[in-house]
């Protein structure tokens, strides 16, 4: 929502994209701090998953140079919708708190490397994929997964923000103004996740998956028609 709003107020799309990263960075940072304060951030696991994710990001960015992300948006949108339906048919599979078996943990690093490629390629829905990957590989419950998701999101966004700043593609005033609100949102969201637990995150996850899937598909349709 904030990215279209920035463009609506006249910012160039590239500058709007960079400015938006400032707000997202503060939001993720606030959420990470809250999860850490309440003892829900597994630093060892978070760092182990961050490395393959960050290694995948430049691969995805390189692919985006040669393969336009717009061409794949409807495919990713359809995947999100299908995954939402599958999860609604079997909610216990993801909502339960699980500890990973040796077999499931073998897939963690390759899966997060693939997520890094996706993030570098298209970005949209990164949080969804991280939550799904951690839950489906039994890497922890949704509260712990949400903490790790925010940690990875914070580091990825930090790297992107630095790059945008180097190229002068950030309007700092609106970025910092939005950051104030985003910090509040990050703290409140993290506290709600901790207080309400897996069911709240599961419901939110389904809604975001459907919304993201529809957005990607509808955007692609309008691009084809326009």
TrEMBL record:
Keyword Transcription regulation in record: no
Record's GO cellular component terms: plasma membrane
Primary subcellular site in the record, as a coarse category: membrane
Membrane topology: Multi-pass membrane protein
Keyword Transport: yes
A Pfam family the protein falls into: TauE
Cell compartments where the protein resides: Cell membrane
Keyword terms of this UniProt record: Cell membrane, Membrane, Transmembrane, Transmembrane helix, Transport
Organism domain of life: Bacteria
Family classification: Belongs to the 4-toluene sulfonate uptake permease (TSUP) (TC 2.A.102) family.
UniProt protein name: Probable membrane transporter protein
Organism: Stieleria neptunia
């Amino acid at each position: 929502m904030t990215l279209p709003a920035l463009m609506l107020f006249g910012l160039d799309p590239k500058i709007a994209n960079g400015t938006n990263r400032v707000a997202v960075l503060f939001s993720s940072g606030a959420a990470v701090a809250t999860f850490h304060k309440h003892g829900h951030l597994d630093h060892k696991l978070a760092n182990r998953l961050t490395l393959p994710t960050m290694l995948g990001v430049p691969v995805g960015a390189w692919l985006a140079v040669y393969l336009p992300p717009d061409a794949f948006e409807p495919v990713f949108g359809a995947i999100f919708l299908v995954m939402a339906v599958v999860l609604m048919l079997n909610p216990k599979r993801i909502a339960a708190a699980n500890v990973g078996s040796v077999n499931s943990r073998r897939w963690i690093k390759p899966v997060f490397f693939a997520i890094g490629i996706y993030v570098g390629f298209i970005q949209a829905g990164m949080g969804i994929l991280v939550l799904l990957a951690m839950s489906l590989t039994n890497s922890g419950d949704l509260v712990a997964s949400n903490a790790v998701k925010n940690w990875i999101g914070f580091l990825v966004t930090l790297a992107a923000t630095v790059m945008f700043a180097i190229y002068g593609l950030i309007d700092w005033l609106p970025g910092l103004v939005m950051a104030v609100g985003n910090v509040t949102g990050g703290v409140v969201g993290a506290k709600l996740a901790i207080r309400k637990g897996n069911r709240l995150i599961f419901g939110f996850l389904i809604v975001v998956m459907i919304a993201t899937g529809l957005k990607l598909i509808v955007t692609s349709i309008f691009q084809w028609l326009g």
